[in-house]
């Protein structure tokens, strides 16, 4: 099985294609600027396919909090069946889809970072974004086209990793 396939230049001069994501057992989109070296792209794709169960669990825990926070803040929305009743962080995976990996220009080509985005059933307008740097989850929240090299992801963003909250958590 190819890890990366169908790489080509898009209409904006960036590169795009497909990358295999082992955890979800499927191909997702990949995109990166032309100036990002293919060696760095391959390094991050290999990292994507080797992230630990602990990292996945952390992503689910923060996504679960994001889901619960959103559904509590907007109780009048008609959510998909079962979404509001989920009780365990891993159950959130049934209500979301990660469909894209963006490989950002590296500041340090020895550090692996993942910039993943997709959709979620609780926030279908904004979607969601996950940022990971060397096995540390640094951002989970709505898609804001953030970069994993950014500093201060706890200020000005609705980042569920850094404690940003809409509501109190009497459901945890």
Helical amount among residues, as a percent range? 10-25%
Low-confidence blocks of residues: 166-172
Rounded radius of gyration (Å): 16 Å
Total number of β-strand segments? Answer: 7
Fold and architecture overview:
The structure is a single chain. Strand 6 (128-133) and strand 7 (136-141) form a beta hairpin. This protein has two helices and seven strands. The protein is of the alpha+beta class and 172 residues long.
Give the secondary structure arrangement, pairings included.
Layout lengths: L3 E6 L5 E7 L4 E7 L5 H11 L4 H21 L22 E8 L9 E8 L7 E6 L2 E6 L31
Provide the descriptors you would attach to this structure in a database record.
172 residues, alpha+beta, 2 helices, disordered C terminus
In short:
With 172 residues, the protein is of the alpha+beta class. The chain has two helices and seven strands.
């Amino acid at each position: 099985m190819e890890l990366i396939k169908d790489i080509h230049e898009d209409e904006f001069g960036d590169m795009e294609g497909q990358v295999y994501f082992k955890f979800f057992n499927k191909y997702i989109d990949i995109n990166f600027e032309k100036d990002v070296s293919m060696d760095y792209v391959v390094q991050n794709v290999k990292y994507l396919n080797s992230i630990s169960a602990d990292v996945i669990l952390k992503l689910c825990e923060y996504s679960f909090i994001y889901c619960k926070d959103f559904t509590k803040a907007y109780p009048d929305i008609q959510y998909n069946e079962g979404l509001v009743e989920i009780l365990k962080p891993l159950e959130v995976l049934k209500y979301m889809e990660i469909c894209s990996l963006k490989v950002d220009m590296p500041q340090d080509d020895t550090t692996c970072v993942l910039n993943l985005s997709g959709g979620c059933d609780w926030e279908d307008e904004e979607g969601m974004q996950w940022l990971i740097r060397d096995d540390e989850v640094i951002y989970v929240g709505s898609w804001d086209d953030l970069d994993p090299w950014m500093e201060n992801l706890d200020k000005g963003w609705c980042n569920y990793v850094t404690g940003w909250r809409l509501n109190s958590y009497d459901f945890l």
